[in-house]
Amino acid sequence: MKTDDLIIKKRDNKELTKEEIDYLVQGYTKGDIPDYQISAFLMAAFLNGMTQVETANLTQSMVNSGETLDLSSISGIKVDKHSTGGVGDKTTLTLGPLVASAGLNVAKMSGRGLGHTGGTIDKLEAFQGLKIDLTMDDFVDRVNKHNIAIVGQTKDLAPADGKLYALRDVTGTVDSIPLIASSIMSKKLAAGTDAIVLDVKVGKGAFMQTLDDAIALGHEMVNIGDNLGRKTIAVISDMDQPLGKNVGNALEVIEAIDTLKGQGPKDFEDLCLHLGANLLLLGEKVETLQQGRNLLQQKITNGEALEKFEELIKVQNGDYRAIHDNSKLPTPKHSKTLKASTQGYISSLDARKVGLACVNLGAGRKTKEDEIDLSVGVELLKKTGDKVKKDEPIAKIWYNEEQKLNDALPVLDISYEISEQPTEDKHLIYGMITIESNPGELDPIN
């Protein structure tokens, strides 16, 4: 096989075979094929697209480029949830223990945040002493004993993805649905779970800006999962405005705990219940989504979900006392209130700008090497649709350094838009995608 022949074949919009895709991916991962040739291949795939079979084969080849986790010694069905990234998205912190309290196995590998989106591992490290680097034996043992373990992603899983993404980032080939889908799914499939629920975000704070693109990505990933033998469901949810009210690592931990107590914001609780019901359905714990929602609501009401979260933090050596005493979490020194410039209704709350304001405070990373401040962030006192009076507090900024406050304040200020008339209620969940869904369409929420 010759690399230039395969580039020409893809340039001419012909389908590559599994063996040809393997040749390109494995050759590049090992360093046998140079950047400039794979860049040409990526551009051809970007311009011409890829078939479902090609995308599935690309994903499988990326999975095969490194180690895969063998979770066969965990009894029962193993599930995972993946979000395509957003602002205030602390879903794993609540959802994991919630479904684990219903007896479902959650074997979760999570990452850190970069840019305006937050990372689950960063948030968990708000618990002093928490260990996220577990051996494979410890990881499996914790899931078997406690139904849940959350660890950091390893570079040995799907290493081809890291190399290919870095190249896409500098060659203008990031915004390709097949390449995005294969990147996400390669890591999920390498992690060894049996079933996956995908939370595909759409809106100003999401990677996918339009509903059509989010639907296309959801279908692509569900098709990959089906082609490679994993039960997969995609849920399309809104990220025009942040999820919940708290943005920032320790602040989001507090909100996740409040939700497990039944005291969290409605939008965040609703999303957790819906995603959780889908996980229970795939995990064969319930027969309908409504049964799943009812079961999870019961676990919140009777306290078992919160107990499972405490169990998770405790067995991974974190200071679980912080669940009941927020002062044991990282705490900022100062706060400042942002007030409404006029009376009216919040017509827009730009999730991306809120996320960037938090990055300026130190809550997120601008580069992978940056250290973050776990204590700082923003509390959104008013969100889209809320009525406000002039000079009424609409947000509270928690900070440690005056200069970082000065960098964040103007960005947060312009994230809010106020109009004279109320706006229409936005969808939180637009719909779902299963392998039975019609191409390009969403199924309604049951």
Order of helices and strands: HHHHEHEHHEHHEHEEHHHHEEHEEEHEE
Measured as a percent range, the helix fraction is 40-55%
Specify the number of helices.
16
Query: Domains counted in the coordinates: how many?
Result: 3
CATH architecture of the largest domain: 3-Layer(aba) Sandwich
Mean pLDDT: 94
Strand content: 15-25%
Low-confidence region ranges: none
Could you state the oligomeric state of the chains shown? single chain
Task: Let me know the largest β-sheet.
Answer: 6 strands, mixed
Count of DSSP strands: 13
Name the CATH superfamily classification of the largest domain. Nucleoside phosphorylase/phosphoribosyltransferase catalytic domain
Structural class: alpha/beta
State the main characteristics:
Pyrimidine Nucleoside Phosphorylase, Chain A, domain 2, 1,4-alpha-oligoglucan phosphorylase activity, 446 residues, Glycosyl_Trfase_fam3_N_dom_sf, 44% helix, PYNP_C, Pyrmidine_PPas_bac/euk, six-stranded mixed beta sheet, 3 domains, Transferase, Pyrimidine Nucleoside Phosphorylase, Chain A, domain 3, four-stranded antiparallel beta sheet, EC 2.4.2.2
Task: Write structural notes for this entry.
The chain has about 450 residues and is of the alpha/beta class. It has 16 helices and 13 strands. The protein has helices at about 5-10, 20-30, 35-50, 50-65, 90-100, 120-125, 135-145, 160-170, 175-190, 210-225, 250-260, 265-280, 290-300, 305-315, 350-360, 400-415, and strands at about 80-85, 105-110, 150, 195-200, 230-240, 245, 335-340, 345-350, 375-380, 385-390, 395-400, 415-420, 430-435. The strands form 3 sheets. It has a 6-stranded mixed sheet with strand order 3-2-1-4-5-13, with helices on both faces. A 4-stranded antiparallel sheet has the order 6-9-11-7, sandwiched between helices. It has a 3-stranded antiparallel sheet with strand order 10-8-12. α1 packs parallel to α3 (about 35-50) and α5 (about 90-100) crosses α12 (about 265-280). The longest helix is centred in the middle third of the chain and has 17 residues, at about 210-225.
